[in-house]
């Protein structure tokens, strides 16, 4: 991205909407994170007994009928329901009424990992059980990766640039990077973030194909990134949506903000066996350059934390290469929820913003003994009151996607 496209004042995040295993709103989520309350538990959304993975992070207590217009519920998948509810919460949190804004100056950019997985599964069941006449008309749109972007855009009359990123766990950082660019090019408001809801038999089978999910049955030890006993990760659902707007727009509306988007960079890992190094270290260097920060000016890293030994080692080496051995506090609150795919990095961004606002680096629940070679300062056992003012969020998606986002502290105190 050419530097001239970015205004001197970076865009800010004025509203957050969280629907995650750790909570159905920002306050509940932050309380769970600070308290180290893991929401990893046996899957209840379907019978997991035939599958080797039986644990996940579910969004408990979410009922679409309470938060989503009734006519949209049968037309869309659970991942869109979560995003619609999250978008409404983010707009309310930002004290923003879309009807008061020019419709072509509002944009929507989301992330999607697998689209409407559960909706698609039910329609395939009808197809193979009863025949094609039983397949509903909404199958043609509900499964689609861009379904959430479209429904959010329609619901709030946001007719500016809209899009979706399909880069798995890295997707939400890519979406926020695009939101940053759109604000620089003239959009006043961008609803951005990501959600996922692929906890169904079809979705789990697709995830098992990667060979990276943990089959450990102990919820406390199944997902322990960087640990000597790391055996993979656990899936989860949910995510976060947020209101990104120009600093001028936020000032004109006289609203505080959680933080600013100082920089974004992306890369792509070379194919296995190529002999070339992973892209993460270079991606970190590029995002720091764009944010005009030295490594010593980064106060905390929110790690991708794959939980796969080889990927953990690669990430630890990249962090060490840029910041030095144990050169920066590293945390991975996603051990409380599992990896949320399209929603994972969005939730990490929300957590990082809350972390800076509260002046606390949350600890990582689960890991006990770091794997040799993982020479990072992983925050364990208890949170640290270090008053972070900059945060680096890292994300890697299956297949090679790599992204990094640098956040600066805002002027909104949380909890207020």
TrEMBL record:
The keyword Isomerase does not apply. Pfam families: ketoacyl-synt, Ketoacyl-synt_C. GO terms for biological process: fatty acid biosynthetic process. GO terms for molecular function: 3-oxoacyl-[acyl-carrier-protein] synthase activity. Residues 8-409 form the Ketosynthase family 3 (KS3) domain. Keywords: Acyltransferase, Transferase. It comes from the Bacteria. PROSITE patterns: KS3_2. Belongs to the thiolase-like superfamily. Beta-ketoacyl-ACP synthases family. This is Ketosynthase chain-length factor. It comes from Lentzea tibetensis.
